[in-house]
Design goal:
By secondary structure, this protein is an alpha/beta fold. The chain contains eight helices and nine strands. Strands 3-2-1-4-5-9-8 form a seven-stranded mixed sheet. A two-stranded antiparallel sheet has the order 6-7. The longest helix is centred in the first third of the chain and has 12 residues. The protein is globular.
Length: 272
């Protein structure tokens, strides 16, 4: 039987076409392709989601033989390139099979008991390189929701940890890989003054009340029939839905705003 956490990632709303193809995510993925070592001929993208990275890579670097791997069979239905079902905790791949192994926006979701196991799996199947992308210096406590059934409070996108420079530099050192370099990808989000505070208040940051913004509670399994994935990205969520007429549209035109900067970090590691 699937765990509640596994069922969470089978939510089709997360994987439908266009979900991670906004301007900021496209820039992140293009940067991930640009940072690939030039001698990469085979690549495994672990935790591939809907396969958008492999699709872009195939367009820009058709010389690279790419395999997309994910545990979610729902996600793999959207992958247009070569793919394989596989759990990151025990990848169904041989040792040192690929020149490069990529793992983008996955590690922040990995539970602590299996975290080192996952890092070992990523390095085990790589001949030369591992490239990791995660949110950078994220404030995970700002983006929470509360289950209306069991009242558990959790990060809306199940992010379990934060990453700083030292974390990235030491990430794979005990697995036989040295840190080569990292790159920050910036996104400036326009936010309406006071609205951000209200959203955190409503979603549970202050009083743990408000709309349940998850497809399923990973603690008790309560399911949300009205879930919509739009606006759940903590790095790329600016709470400024386009359009809106009437009073709402007028308020958007006159309401004071500010900009908040969010980041991803992409790091390259090489086998020693």
């Amino acid at each position: 039987m699937q765990s509640f956490e596994q069922k969470y990632y089978e939510t089709a709303e997360f994987w439908k076409e266009g979900m991670v193809e906004d301007e900021a995510n496209t820039r992140r993925l293009n940067s991930s392709i640009a940072i690939l070592p030039s001698d990469t001929k085979t690549l495994a993208d672990i935790g591939c989601g809907n396969g958008v990275f492999a699709k872009m890579l195939q367009q820009q670097r058709p010389d690279i033989d790419t395999l997309s791997v994910d545990r979610s069979e729902t996600a793999l239905k959207y992958v247009k390139t070569k793919s394989k079902v596989g759990d990151i905790v025990a990848l169904p791949l041989e040792d040192k099979t690929f020149d490069c192994v990529t793992c983008f926006e996955v590690l922040e979701h990995i539970p602590y008991p299996v975290y080192d196991t996952v890092l070992n799996e990523l390095t085990r199947i790589s001949k030369k390189y591992v490239i990791i992308s995660v949110p950078y210096q994220e404030k995970t406590e700002y983006n929470v929701t509360k289950c209306p059934a069991c009242h558990a409070v959790f990060n809306i996108v199940l992010h379990l940890r934060n990453y700083f420079d030292k974390d990235m530099q030491e990430l794979l050192s005990k697995f036989g890989f040295r840190f080569v370099k990292q790159q920050l990808i910036e996104k400036k989000n326009k936010v309406y003054l006071g609205v951000d505070w209200y959203i955190r208040f409503r979603s549970g940051y202050l009083r743990n009340k408000g709309k349940f913004r998850s497809p399923i509670c990973p603690v008790c399994g309560f399911e949300n029939p009205s879930f919509n994935a739009t606006g759940t990205d903590p790095v790329n969520n600016n709470h400024t839905t386009a359009g809106g007429g009437g009073i709402k549209g007028l308020l958007k035109k006159i309401w004071p705003t500010k900009y908040r900067t969010g980041h991803w970090v992409i790091a390259v590691y090489e086998r020693i």
